[in-house]
């Protein structure tokens, strides 16, 4: 595994509920760097990026805080791309999920430069495929998937060069259970691979992950964008947009361990952790526990799959 660089992005400009700007520090308090080091990883903390404050303004043309969202994503893009070019694995600590536009765009640019094939696993309760004309809120943390697929403001869709940054076939969404009315139509038009909670209920997490990871090989750059609201809110209350009925602790552990088994994890987001909604940082501690599994922690030593 490549050495890891922690990058904090303390902002909630894309969210409707304030507080996930404190997420990076909550992950640090929960011992993220120490947990990775226990798994024989070289870890450096690059500190926090700097960007504009949350102005708390209403939407304009269906989008709230577009200028601020663009500024933060440019900073994220530059930091993540520089980390990848230095041969390290960027671990972006959010912050709200709009920041994944910058981190995934950086992975896409790096893949074009190095001849790798990008695969994006989007672990989330929400599809995040809205645009300004379909969103009921204007909150841009509900738009990153659309932007990455080339639908949205040009300053965001072209961060990595000509839009789209990512081929639709490269994105696999897991755990989805909250989709806005117009967003359902957009998901159908985009034809993304969406493994929603009904699919997981009917087929189990093991089969779901086998399908989601199908086609991964030695040339794959695997980017995982982990929104903490992917988890059932009974065990992870520290998020701004709770949705009941998510994966259990054991299902999520299996998900993370199967990703680790591929050996292809190359960039990671941990997003939407909101200490203002949490109970004594239990969600932050849970997130750190799960990230450890994502980097190879397991109950027993297991040889890599053939």
UniProtKB/TrEMBL annotation:
Source organism per UniProt: Cupriavidus oxalaticus
Recorded GO CC terms: cytoplasm
Record-level Gene Ontology MF annotations: arginase activity; manganese ion binding
The protein's name in its UniProt record: Arginase
Cofactor: Mn(2+)
Gene: rocF
Catalytic activity reported: L-arginine + H2O = urea + L-ornithine
InterPro entries for this protein: Arginase (IPR014033), Ureohydrolase (IPR006035), Ureohydrolase_dom_sf (IPR023696)
Coiled-coil annotated residue ranges, if any: none
């Amino acid at each position: 595994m490549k050495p890891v660089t922690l990058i904090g992005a303390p902002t909630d400009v894309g969210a409707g509920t304030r507080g996930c700007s404190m997420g990076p520090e909550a992950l640090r308090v929960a011992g993220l760097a120490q947990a990775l080091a226990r798994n024989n990883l070289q870890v450096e903390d690059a500190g926090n990026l700097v960007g504009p404050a949350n102005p708390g303004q209403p939407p304009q043309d269906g989008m709230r805080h577009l200028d601020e969202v663009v500024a933060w994503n440019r900073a994220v893009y530059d930091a993540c791309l520089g980390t990848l070019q230095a041969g390290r694995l960027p671990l972006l600590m959010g912050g709200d999920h709009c920041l994944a536009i910058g981190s995934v765009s950086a992975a896409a640019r790096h893949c074009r430069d190095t001849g790798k094939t990008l695969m994006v696993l989007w672990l989330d309760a929400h599809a995040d495929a809205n645009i300004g004309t379909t969103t009921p809120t204007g909150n841009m943390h509900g738009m990153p998937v659309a932007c990455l697929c080339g639908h949205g403001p040009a300053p965001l869709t072209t961060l990595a060069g000509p839009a789209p940054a990512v081929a639709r076939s490269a994105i696999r969404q897991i755990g989805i259970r909250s989709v806005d009315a117009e967003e359902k139509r957009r998901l159908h038009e985009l034809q993304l691979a969406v493994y929603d909670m009904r699919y997981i209920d009917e087929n189990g997490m093991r089969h779901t992950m086998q399908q989601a990871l199908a086609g991964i090989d030695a040339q794959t750059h695997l980017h995982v964008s982990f929104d903490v609201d992917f988890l059932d809110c009974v065990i992870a209350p520290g998020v701004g947009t709770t949705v009941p009925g998510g994966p259990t602790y054991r299902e999520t552990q299996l998900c993370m361990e199967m990703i680790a088994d591929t050996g292809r994890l190359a960039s990671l987001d941990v997003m939407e952790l909101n200490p203002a909604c949490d109970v004594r940082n239990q969600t932050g501690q849970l997130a750190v526990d799960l990230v450890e599994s994502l980097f190879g922690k397991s109950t027993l030593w297991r040889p890599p799959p053939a």
